[in-house]
Amino acid sequence: MPNIKEAQIIQYNLNEIVIRISKRDKYNLSDEKKLIEEVHHKISPNLLVKFEYVDEIEKTVTGKFRAVISKL
Known about the structure:
It contains 1 helix and 4 strands, in the order ββαββ. With 72 residues, the chain is of the alpha/beta class. A 4-stranded mixed sheet has the order 3-2-1-4, with helices on one face. β2, α1 and β3 form a beta-alpha-beta unit. The protein is flat.
């Protein structure tokens, strides 16, 4: 999505994900709604989607970006 610099999905349990977003200036609630629609369409309509906004997504100690993190 053009209004997102970086995003990371973190799953803490089977029914919920957190999408961490580093947003651009034009990011708005319609972008958030679109993300929820995409998750419900591609993964599960029953999945709870939460958002966390950050300045940047932290990298691993080796400098790599992890797009998806499972804490299950």
